[in-house]
Amino acid sequence: MKATTRIAATFVAVALGIPSLALAEEAFQAEAGFSYSYLKSGPARQTTAGPEASFFFDKLPAVPKDYPLEQAQFVERIGSLSATFGRMTSDLGNTRTKSSMSGVSSEYRRPDTPMIAGAGVLSSYSGNQIDARLYQASIGAYVDKTTALALDGSRIMTSTKISSGGSTFSEFTDAFTSVGVSGQHLARLSSGDHVAFIAGISRSTHEQERAAPEKNRSAFLKATYYPTRMVGLKLGGSFDRGDDSLTAGKTVEAGAKMFLTPAFSLDLDFQRFYAKARGDSDNFITIRALVRF
Question: CA 166 to CA 72: how far, in whole Å?
Answer without folding.
Answer: 52
